[in-house]
Structure formats: C-alpha cells, structure tokens
Amino acid sequence: xxxxLLYKLFRIGGIPKKLRPVLEQxxxxxxxxxIGGWVYMKNYRAPGKRFKYRVTGFTGFxxxxxxxxxxxxxxxxxxxxxxxxxxLGELELELLRNDSLKISFEASSxxxxxxxRIEVRFKTDKASLFYSLIKxxx
Length: 138
What we know:
Layout: H1 5-10, H2 20-26, E1 28-46, E2 49-65, E3 68-73, E4 76-82, E5 92-97, E6 100-106, E7 115-123, H3 127-137
Antiparallel strand pairs: 1-2, 1-7, 2-3, 3-4, 5-6, 6-7
C-alpha cells in the first residue's frame, strides 16, 4: 500500500524520534508508518468540544510491541495501551477488508472527562496481522 503524500514529502505520520528507541526496546512485532485513515467521533463530548458526528482524515502510524499497542494521528497519540491493561479488552476490532482495520472504543474508558464513541480506521496492507496480534493480547 502506498504511503500518504504528507509522509512521502515531510515524514508526517511517522514514529516520533523520541518514541522510536522506546518501541524498539519493547520489541516491535508489527509497525506501519505513513498510513492514512479516518477518525469517527459519535456523540462525543470533551471539555470545550461537542460533536454529534464528526469524521476527520489523518496520516499516522500503528505499532504493536511486546508491551503495548500504540497509534498516532499526525503527532498526537490516539491509542497507547499497555498489553497488560484490562482496558485493551474494551477495544473492538474489525477487519473491514484485507487492507483496512477498524478499532473502536468508548472515550470514557480512557478519560473520564470524555464521552462518546470513537472509531479509528487504518488503511494498511498489514491489517490482518495487526488484527491477529491485538486479538492475541486481548
């Protein structure tokens, strides 16, 4: 699968320089950088934000290590969960096609000041591998 234009030109959507050694030390099992996707927010409430329904595109990365599942949209973490955290089981995974992975969760499970449903859809050739790795930790 081709990388996003922002990644090709400016390396936006790659692993931050400070985070890469940490992930390598944890033992990267699968990673894909510069992938595109969409974030869907449904009935979302946070301090200063309210959305009935909002869709935002992104370029970012998804990684699974021996110790955590981490995903960034642009430079911001959207998922960063240790594998021993019981909230990992609250992530709902779905393979939409062989090249698309949907991860959805309730925002309040990870931050009590937020409410609503968040769905993150990653377009990656490694979708089935990510799916099986994350499922093995659940």
